[in-house]
């Protein structure tokens, strides 16, 4: 079965895995309880397009996830929405899954009427995002690079 990208609303059984991966990757080391991350993830089950979470999977096999959220960089609250928390399972990397997840989140932002979407990344990943159509708009905001992608 080929990998597909689904809205978490349609595959809610993946929510515990999404919460675990995102928490371990970005929040556990900051002392944020898993329950706090899960509460934020649960906001993706609402009816608004932002926030939303998307899951890459092959049937019941979890491959990765990404979120579309209102704000990912506190220093830039006027920029919205953000493609955030992009995660691909190590054994599924380098197969185009991250690009498919980013594309799905970006499409959701545009479908919701936003003219652009934003993304924050460490400088070491700048070339990766630039090669996928993201334009650098600001550097070194709390150690991150800020990228944007406009509706074409």
Automatic annotation (TrEMBL):
<dbReference type="Pfam" id="PF00583">
    <property type="entry name" value="Acetyltransf_1"/>
</dbReference>
<keyword id="KW-0808">Transferase</keyword>
<keyword id="KW-0012">Acyltransferase</keyword>
<dbReference type="InterPro" id="IPR016181">
    <property type="entry name" value="Acyl_CoA_acyltransferase"/>
</dbReference>
<dbReference type="InterPro" id="IPR050832">
    <property type="entry name" value="Bact_Acetyltransf"/>
</dbReference>
<protein>
    <submittedName>
        <fullName>GNAT superfamily N-acetyltransferase</fullName>
    </submittedName>
</protein>
<dbReference type="InterPro" id="IPR000182">
    <property type="entry name" value="GNAT_dom"/>
</dbReference>
<feature type="domain" description="N-acetyltransferase">
    <location>
        <begin position="6"/>
        <end position="152"/>
    </location>
</feature>
């Amino acid at each position: 079965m080929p990998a597909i990208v689904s809205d978490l609303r349609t595959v809610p059984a993946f929510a515990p895995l999404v919460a675990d991966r995102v928490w371990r990757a970005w929040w556990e080391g900051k002392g944020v309880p898993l329950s706090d991350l899960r509460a934020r993830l649960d906001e993706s089950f609402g009816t608004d397009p932002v926030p939303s979470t998307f899951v890459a999977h092959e049937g019941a096999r979890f491959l990765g996830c990404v979120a579309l959220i209102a704000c990912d960089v506190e220093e830039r609250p006027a920029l919205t929405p953000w493609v955030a928390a992009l995660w691909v399972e190590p054994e599924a990397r380098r197969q185009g899954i991250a690009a498919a997840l980013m594309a799905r989140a970006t499409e959701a932002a545009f479908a919701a009427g936003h003219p652009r979407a934003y993304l924050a990344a460490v400088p070491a990943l700048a070339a990766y995002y630039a090669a996928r159509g993201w334009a650098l708009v600001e550097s070194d905001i709390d150690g991150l690079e800020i990228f944007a992608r406009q509706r074409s």
